Amino acid sequence: MSDWVIAIPSYHRSDSIKENTLKALDECNIPHNLIKVFVSKEEVPVYRASLPEDIEVIESVLGCIQNRAYIRDYYPEGQHIVFMDDDIKTIYSICDVTDDHATCHIFDKKNIGNSYYKKQMLIPNLHKFLTNAFVIMHKEGAHLGGFYPVCNGFFANHRYTTDLKYICGGFYLLRNVKDFQHQGDQYAEDWEASCAFYKRDGKVVRFDSVFVKTPYYKGVGGLVETRTVELSRIAQEKVAALYPDYVTVVPPTKNNKFWNLKIKKQKD
Fold first, then answer.
1. Which of 7, 65, 115, 182 is buried most deeply by CB count within 10 Å?
2. DSSP letters spanning the chain
3. pLDDT tens for residues 45-101?
4. What is the Cβ-side half-sphere exposure of residue 161, based on CA atoms within 13 angstroms?
5. What's the maximum distance between 2 C-alpha atoms anywhere in the chain?
6. Within 13 Å, how many C-alpha atoms sit on residue 114's CB side?
């Protein structure tokens, strides 16, 4: 039995979701009865005809923020929800997810050069990891949890943190609450949630041993169809105005044409 569900908001990806997130979950042996795909009314028959029969397709609403809000309203207070985007390709880990962590040392970067060193692996037991993650969130009193935002095991760490960190919207955990509503734009909704839940709980939990491969800002469907540089600037500035003590706006760089945010150093 699981005390969590996986909610996947999706838009215009009835075919590609099968080769991305659903395939990634199959590789991790996640039962289909735990997976729920939320799409707008007009897309329900399209997804229903495309996806396996044992994956539930639930009628939701159009829009990234609106769809996520619908999912929060759909489930009761306290429900454990694993939010996943529909374009995740692989879920990696540097933790073997065993009780004694017998082989986790092979992913420690200090062992580079040794024959047994590995940078990362397909997470060996996603079900167990997610179950334990929610236990930790309860223990810490946090309602928002996430994962390392860079797909590179060399930079990942075998730990979790509780200070203010960016919780990427592509894959995150929520102990459902009814007192949260986005005030900004969809192009920075994960930054806003990171700040809002840190302000609410005094912490967010980020598990730095797990990360995903996903094509940020690429492909078709989702926010790719509407995101622009100017819209990203407006969205980041709104979050910075809402949480001036937490983040500051960062202009585009050589490696990222979109505006972004940076967390300010927090006082103890």
1. 7
2. --SEEEEEE-SS-TTHHHHTHHHHHHHTT--GGGEEEEEEGGGHHHHHHHS-TTSEEEEE-SSHHHHHHHHHHHSPTT-EEEEE-TT--EEEES----SS-TTGGGG-GGGTTSTT--S-EE-S-HHHHHHHHHHHHHHHT-SEEEE-SSS-TTT--SSEE-SS----TTEEEEE--SS----S-GGGHHHHHHHHHHHHHS--EEETTEEEE--TT-SSSGGGGT--HHHHHHHHHHHHHH-TTTEEEE---SS--S-EEEEPPPP-
3. 999 999 999 999 999 999 889 999 999 999 999 999 999 999 999 999 999 999 999
4. 15
5. 55
6. 12
Beta-carbon count within 10 A of 250 CB: 14
Q: What is the CATH number of domain 4-215+222-263?
A: 3.90.550.10
pLDDT digits (tens, 9 = 90+) for 178-212: 999 888 777 899 999 999 999 999 999 999 999 99
Model confidence band, residue 222 (pLDDT cutoffs 50, 70, 90): very low
Whether residue 44 is predicted with pLDDT greater than 60 in this model: the reply is yes
What's the whole-model pTM score?
Answer: 0.93
| Alpha carbon of residue 201 to chain centroid | 19
CA distances from residue 27 to 38, 70, 122, 207 in whole angstroms, order as listed: 21, 28, 9, 21
